[in-house]
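For practice. Supply one:
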Amino acid sequence: MRLKKVAPKHDEKSNKVMIPLSDSLDTNIKNFEELFTDCGDLVKRKFPIGENNNVWAYIAYIDVMIDRRVIEESVLEQLLVQVRGVGKSFEKSNEDEFSFIKNGGFATADLKEVNNMDDAVLAVLSGDTVIFIDGYEKVIVVATKGFPNRGVQPPDTESVIRGSKEGFSEAFRINTVLIRRRIRDSKLKIKQIQLGTRTRTDIGLVYIEDLVRPQVLREIEERLSYFKIDSVLESGTLEQMIETQWYSPFPQSQVTQRPDKVASAILEGRVAIVVDNTPFVLLLPTTMNCFFQSSEDYYQRWYVMSFVRILRYCAAFLSFAIPGFYIALTTFHPSMIPTPLTFSIAAAREGVPFPALVEVLIMEIAFELLREAGVRLPAPIGNTIGIVGGLIVGQAVVQANLVSPIIVIIVALTAISSFAIPSYSLTSAFRMIKYLIIILSSFLGFLGFWLGILIVLTHLVSLKSMDIPYLSPYVAREVNNQDLKDSLIRMPTFMNRLRPVFTTTNNKVRLDIKEKGENNVFTKQ
């Protein structure tokens, strides 16, 4: 056994001690296995190959992370059975033993070579297989990834009646394939990087080269390079790190589980950030208008979905405005209420010892507790808790004269309105704003109510996502007039001929209708 001492090298970029490779197989095995001490899931084997067993090799991989069929049929079988000419045939060629084995010893095209121990270790931890050859300071890396995953299943957070039922999974490559399947264009680029000094999570920036704005792509890459973090376990970590207005309750990037929504966004010139180990993909840049759009909007008739979209906007306003409006009306401005309704509210509140503010807070907090309990419990139990708990608690507090029946109706209507918003992230923002409106209305009446609305609007106007105004296309109307056709009202498809504001100015046209004379229904519009 020949062991050589190899001096470690320090990498200034990663601030790590790099262990170089040696031409001694035993030295490489020793250094490699020291890094995997107490790792019982590492599968390794040293074996001879060649006609006279004159060349020794060492194979290593993580159990279950690899496709065992690929290992056995495309790697081991080829090395042990097919490669019989090592030691003789390679002498007749211009290749050395390493190149001869690499080029003729595997029944797969997805392989590469690395020349440092750190890359070899990273390949093993990523689900690949490494093969050391005695006498060479290089390692063959064979792609054998076979992670256990739940496959392609329907998205559980964005259900639609009509449209694709496929959703992203936790496997990075499956998610990129779902996007490739929908956009068969060579200009669709997937720029892959790794973040997390410990997790080394695969991150993919997906965009169409001639549609994305270069400054937007550049800014996203710069923001991802600003920070150095030890772990990226979910896309939510990146979402919080790349936001500039971190104090805002409103999301500045869109999150989705649907491949068709991601494909549509990419075709508009936006950038999708695919993160390994999570089914949630980030879309940048984004506007508030994007959160009210659903994939189903474009699969059904325009006037039906326009009506639904108007309902969503109304529901968004009601989800944070109703409780504060009720408090301001009943506490400071009862004269604005019609007399019959005033008597009805007074009769309902008879015997209630708390003011309207306390009533609303009691029911709102109780509902938040029920909502959180329903999410954390298993699905069958969670649904039961949500329905039965809501009925029992609502009826009990009314019978105990802690709150009035109208408060239960207001809180229930507020909750139903929040569920009509397609985006959970935007719903969470409105849930926070609701309490601001409640507090201001309880102290200042309608003045406080409209002051809260004004504060929210002022904040929204100041927000930007990658230099795109958050309230686009409702601000800078003369610039984004085309976007108004797909905002509050979704106009017919043939009228949306230009791409939205996210796209570079060179490729705005996405629909071109040929002139066919007077009978063309499209040209008559």
Observations:
- The chain has a mean pLDDT of 85.
- The CA atoms of residues 268 and 503 lie 6 Å apart.
- The chain has three domains: 9-142, 172-286, 302-469.
